[in-house]
Amino acid sequence: xxxxxxxxxxxxxxxxxxxxxxxxxxxxxxxxxxxxxxxxxxxxxxxxxxxxxxxxxxxxxxxxxxxxxxxxxxxxxxxxxxxxxxxxxxxxxxxxxxxxxxxxxxxxxxxxxxxxxxxxxxxxxxxxxxxxxxxxxxxxxxxxxxxxxxxxxxxxxxxxxxxxxxxxxxxxxxxxxxxxxxxxxxxxxxxxxxxxxxxxxxxxxxxxxxxxxxxxxxxxxxxxxxxxxxxxxxxxxxxxxxxxxxxxxxxxxxxxxxxx
Length: 260
Description:
Layout (H helix, E strand, L loop, with lengths): L1 H16 L6 H18 L3 H17 L11 H16 L7 H6 L3 E2 L2 E2 L2 H28 L5 H7 L3 H7 L4 H4 L14 H17 L3 H20 L6 H29 L1
Helix pairs in contact: 1-2, 1-3, 1-4, 1-6, 2-3, 4-12, 6-10, 6-12, 10-12, 11-12
């Protein structure tokens, strides 16, 4: 359990740090110090060291400014390792120095230090890291994105600017930051995944089904505009299903750790 918690916490933390491009190195240093402190006081030095290595590899394998060279397979490997650690490794009998003073109650009973690390790590991963996984899945399947269509289709403003230019320069697409297509999803996606995690752990399955159905209803007008090629529907389905699988996988890890 503690290994999975540290891995998710490291990956989720470095991806949150990457949102502050100007001071990334400071954020990475803070994350490393935080992991070192938690690993020391929690008697989890080996999981902490593994988390530092995995966090560094994740930053390299899953860049946030260009398509991932490894696709979404680093996330698949991380999921396999996390599930394997939770399912096969026995629960620790103690949590080092912090275990002597740790006490956290909840409506479902006492929460151990290891379980708390796992919950925080899963939540951190769902906030930003899952966005990178969804984007890598869309890139890997060459799924159509709205921003790509806007790059290829000239706008009236482009046509006006092209009046005084040569035909060669007018045919070049305007450069658009591909991350701009995900600004809405970067907020909606994390909120949706956190809700899926909470509703699943609370066994509120009717509410979960209603929320997922409501998303499809709200997005139906937009999806229906691409019925000729099915591109919008594919974009919606791939992104949504990958996002939901990640959230349900995190809920499984937390549930198994709490009840295993």
